[in-house]
Write a structure and sequence with these properties.
With 148 residues, this protein is mostly helical. It has a domain of 69 residues. It contains 6 helices and 4 strands; from the N terminus they run E-E-H-H-E-E-H-H-H-H. It has a two-stranded antiparallel sheet. Helix 1 packs antiparallel against helix 2.
């Protein structure tokens, strides 16, 4: 039995003439808000307020930014500005140049400062190494058994 595989599933159906359902809702909403403004306000003020509303409604219905609908751009704008922001610090790679004769002549290579251990730090370090070695001793019996 053969089944027909649907094609062009990413294209929305045109329900209201050349408009999809979403486009019709955006345009009808913009026109409806303008009609309400013209009935409640004087014509001059209603015209000033309704022009940006009409432009926004038409942009929502028809304008695309980088092949994405304008609705998604507006949604991303609000999510970014109203949502939490997490800034992550990225460590920049260091300059690991080897000293060459040219660098030594010009003095570009900086002196590397080696930290000096005080006597107390050195004692703490040796003590910690001794403790770790004693807590995990290597048994010679297991090694001697494998040799036989």
């Amino acid at each position: 039995m053969r089944f027909q595989v649907p094609q062009f599933i990413e294209v929305e159906d045109k329900l209201f003439g050349p408009l999809t359902f979403k486009q019709f809702i955006y345009v009808a909403g913009g026109v409806g808000i303008c009609v309400i403004l013209f009935t409640l306000l004087p014509n001059f003020f209603a015209l000033l307020i309704s022009v940006p509303i009409v432009v926004f409604a038409l942009a929502l219905a028809f304008y695309k930014v980088n092949e994405r609908p304008f609705v998604q751009v507006v949604e991303s704008f609000f999510k970014y500005h109203l949502g939490n922001k997490l800034y992550i610090w990225k460590k920049m790679p260091t300059d690991n140049r080897q000293p060459t004769t040219d660098n030594l002549k010009t003095g570009e290579i900086r002196q590397v400062q080696v930290p000096k251990l005080s006597e107390s730090k050195l004692k703490e370090l040796t003590w910690s190494l001794d403790i770790k070695e004693n807590s995990n001793p290597v048994t010679r019996d297991s090694n001697s058994l494998t040799d036989n």
